[in-house]
């Protein structure tokens, strides 16, 4: 018999996959906490605002480079 060394991470992933597939389907529907969903929504909105602000700043910098050269 040949023994192989399996990386720990790989073993954990396989173990998790086995456990998830052996669970009844009813337990796979997680409870969604409304407060957590609201926090996620707020974070999504903040991220969107920051991305827009970042794009505006980058566009302004690009315009400045054009006018300076």
From TrEMBL:
Residue ranges of coiled coil: 40-67
Highest taxon, organism lineage: Eukaryota
Keyword line: Coiled coil
The protein's name in its UniProt record: Uncharacterized protein
């Amino acid at each position: 018999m040949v023994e192989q060394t399996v990386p720990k991470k790989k073993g954990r992933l396989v173990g998790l996959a086995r456990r998830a597939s052996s669970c009844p389907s009813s337990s796979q529907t997680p409870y969604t906490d409304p407060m957590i969903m609201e926090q996620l929504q707020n974070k999504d909105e903040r991220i969107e605002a920051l991305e827009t602000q970042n794009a505006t700043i980058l566009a302004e910098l690009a315009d400045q480079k054009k006018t300076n050269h």
